[in-house]
Amino acid sequence: MIFKKDNLPFGLILGFITPLLSLVIYYFLKFYPLYSMGDMFGALHDNKRLVTAISIPCLFLNIVIFTLYINSRKDRTAKGVFAVTLLYAVAALLFKVWG
Q1: Alpha-carbon gap, residue 35 to 42, rounded angstroms
Q2: Among 43, 78, 98, 99, which one is most buried in terms of CB atoms within 10 A?
Q3: Which pTM was predicted?
Q4: How many CB atoms lie within 10 A of CB 92?
């Protein structure tokens, strides 16, 4: 199965895609059908507390994936997921402070 791979590029891709999936799920649970995706991003820009509310589920999903790969001893894939998780966390922090 594809999720049994143990390489860094796969971890980077997986770490990048899962928060995006979480963002889409968050949008459909909290904003749809009243607001468009663009309205949600506009609200993010205007209300910095939403950055935290959205980034926590996104990063949590990456932490779950990271833990699964660490426990199955797929260390290279876990490193990729961890690296992207750090980038997302720093980006969310920077956006919240200066965005």
Answers
A1: 10
A2: 78
A3: 0.86
A4: 19
What number of other Cβ atoms are within 10 A of residue 25's Cβ? 13
Q: Express each pLDDT in 46-90 by its tens digit.
A: 888 888 888 998 899 999 999 999 999 999 999 999 999 999 999
The label of the residue with tokens 């199955």 reads 72
Q: Which two tokens stand for residue 53?
A: 């509310």
Q: Spell out a b/e string for 51-72, using b for 16 or more CB atoms within 10 Å of the CB, else e.
A: beebbeebbebbeebbeebeee
Average pLDDT over residues 37-47: 89
**Which pair of structure tokens corresponds to residue 90?**
């720093």
What percent of the chain lies above the pLDDT cut of 90? 69
Closest CA to 88 of 56, 53, 64: 56
